[in-house]
């Protein structure tokens, strides 16, 4: 637990926000979202509950900000270094496939799927969340770069980004319903190979 160095009347700054999100991550990994309380998070973060409530109304809003931070970190961390001689498309596809693999292996995602899967349903069936909006922005920017260097099929960038994200989400969220790790043709690795093929055929001019 972080020592309480904060005045309870102060608003959290960005450093405090990371401390709080680290605390809620630890709570969720330990007991799941439904059993996590603002008191638990405040105690782990070394802040008062009132300080948390000034920034987040409840645990679910905290978890929403945590997911945004973690998923964007997965996406950006999965992208390889730019290699202009290759064009945009090859490293982009490498990063997208690696990102799906990293997302599925992320401890927070695994915990939510195992204990609180209903938390993900609104972002699959009803509305886009902050992390999806941020990912769409990253995708659209990369696709425009690919349009400019000729390595990505020309199409409206926003629509193309949304289409790619739909493909990625289906693999990230539902892949385990289709795999059979005892069958070499139906392993996770084999399906990620299919994902690479789908992206190549979708994005190649």
UniProtKB/TrEMBL annotation:
Keyword NADP assigned to the entry: answer is: no
User: HTH tetR-type domain spans which residues?
Assistant: 14-74
PROSITE patterns from the UniProt entry: HTH_TETR_2
Q: Does the keyword DNA-binding apply?
A: yes
Which key words tag this protein in UniProt? DNA-binding
Q: Which domain of life is it from?
A: Bacteria
Tell me the DNA-binding residue spans.
37-56
Record-linked PANTHER family: HTH-TYPE TRANSCRIPTIONAL REGULATOR RUTR, HTH-TYPE TRANSCRIPTIONAL REPRESSOR RV3405C
Designated name of the protein: TetR/AcrR family transcriptional regulator
Give the species: Streptomyces massasporeus
Organism lineage = Bacteria, Bacillati, Actinomycetota, Actinomycetes, Kitasatosporales
């Amino acid at each position: 637990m972080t020592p309480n160095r904060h005045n309870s009347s102060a608003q959290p700054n960005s450093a405090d926000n990371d401390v709080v999100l680290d605390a809620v991550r630890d709570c969720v990994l330990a007991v799941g979202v439904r059993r996590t309380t603002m008191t638990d998070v405040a105690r782990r973060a070394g802040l008062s509950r009132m300080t948390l409530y000034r920034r987040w109304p409840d645990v679910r809003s905290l978890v929403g900000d945590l997911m945004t931070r973690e998923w964007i970190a997965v996406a950006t961390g999965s992208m390889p270094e730019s290699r202009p001689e290759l064009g945009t498309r090859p490293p982009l596809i490498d990063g997208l496939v690696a990102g799906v693999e990293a997302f599925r292996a992320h401890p927070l995602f695994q915990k939510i799927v195992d204990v609180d899967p209903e938390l993900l349903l609104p972002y699959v069936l009803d509305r886009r969340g902050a992390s999806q909006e941020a990912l769409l922005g990253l995708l659209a920017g990369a696709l425009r770069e690919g349009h400019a260097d000729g390595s990505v099929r020309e199409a409206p960038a926003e629509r193309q980004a949304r289409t790619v994200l739909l493909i990625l989400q289906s693999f990230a969220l539902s892949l385990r319903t289709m795999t059979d790790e005892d069958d070499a043709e139906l392993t996770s690795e084999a399906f990620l190979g299919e994902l690479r093929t789908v992206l190549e055929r979708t994005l190649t001019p």
